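Standup notes
- HV: blocked on the assembly model, inputs below
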Amino acid sequence: MAEPTSVLPRIAAGDPAAVPDCIARYGGLVWGLARRFLGNPSDAEDAVQDVFIELWKNAGRFDPALSSEPTYVTMIARRRLIDRKRRVGRAPAVQTLVEEPPAVPRGPNRAEIDDEAAKAAAVLNELREDERRVIVMAIYEGKTHEEIAAETRLPVGTVKTHIRRGLIRVRERLGLAGGAK
Amino acid sequence: MTPDPRRARLDDLLATEATQGLSLDEATELDALLLAFPDEDPDGLERAAAAIHNALARPEPVPPALLERLQLAAVAVAPAPVVPRAVRPRPAWLAWSGWAVAAGLAGVLVYVQIPRRPVVPVPEPTFAELRDALRPQAPEFVGAKQAATGSIVWSDAKQEGYMELRGLAPVDPAAGTYQLWIVDADRKDSEPVDGGVFRVNADGTALVKIRAPIRVKRAAAFAVTRERDPNGVVVSKVKPADYELVMAPKKG
């Protein structure tokens, strides 16, 4: 059952007020993601528009039984951004971090994001420091496995293993479906 | 019991897809593995990555120019109600009046500031539409065997093609898969090129985009085999009699 505040089901149902609500609620999330992934503000603006158009056109595909709405929005945004980077063949993560990402979610709109994100944060806090660092570099900073290996001096295979195990642990914690291990 | 190494490879590819995307070869491999493990949620690790991202990220203020652009795009892309919810029926005029007001506001915005990049939403074309667009500049290959019929539109120049099949028996993904082969007349070793694995719908139809992992210089024919290995990919030497279907250039 969708939360009453979900905007995508309202968009799918043709509620015109839901579209500006969607921009207000997720604009900052998608913009921050695009800016971090693409670096160039002009490219990031184009990408944000692409993401929202996709969200609006396919709003009916959101299934609240599978994930929260913020998780779904971020998943669609990440998919679009990764695809965009691969299409243009550009090196990812050109954006330099100005600060360390917070270990605990905070900031505006957290009430909307907290549930699944908090579970993910709890998993991150359970990881060893080197594992957590690799996950943050891969997912938050958008770095490739090879870039992470070069920066951390870990073998690429170890980087991939840390990422895979971390993602699987979060998937299990969120209760998302996966294959038998 | 020894874990199936293909399961680890599947997780590896899904994790790579969720973090940095896949190459064409990896995507093809992932498609085959997902056929072999139908219980796997293909989006599960992408959702996990999204949740991790949301745990770490803070929303950033959206530049005012981008906000205006999104508002204009919202007017241009009125979403179709994919999942109609009839909890509280509303008169049609009421639903559309909101859009009319939004359109009016957008008109004011357009008057005040011409958008830097006009938004022209283009729906994603279907495989059938892409095939029909390709048809005038590409030959067609057709074939039939017993109840099965197939046609392929393939362009050597574009390395693009689409296959439509009817009358093929669906295969349990756990028990096997269908595999497409491309016969390249210019290939010296005479080995057919792997055209990818695919599934057939319950009604015996399939419409697939052909993925050639290597360049096909001069396609002479296409063949469909049924593989017992759910991964397909590499098959032992097949004889023409083993083909489920062969599609040759259409005459006339």
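- HV (later): unblocked. The first helix of chain A runs from residue 8 to 12. Chain A touches chain B through 85 residues (CB under 8 Å).
- Next: hand off to the docking folks.
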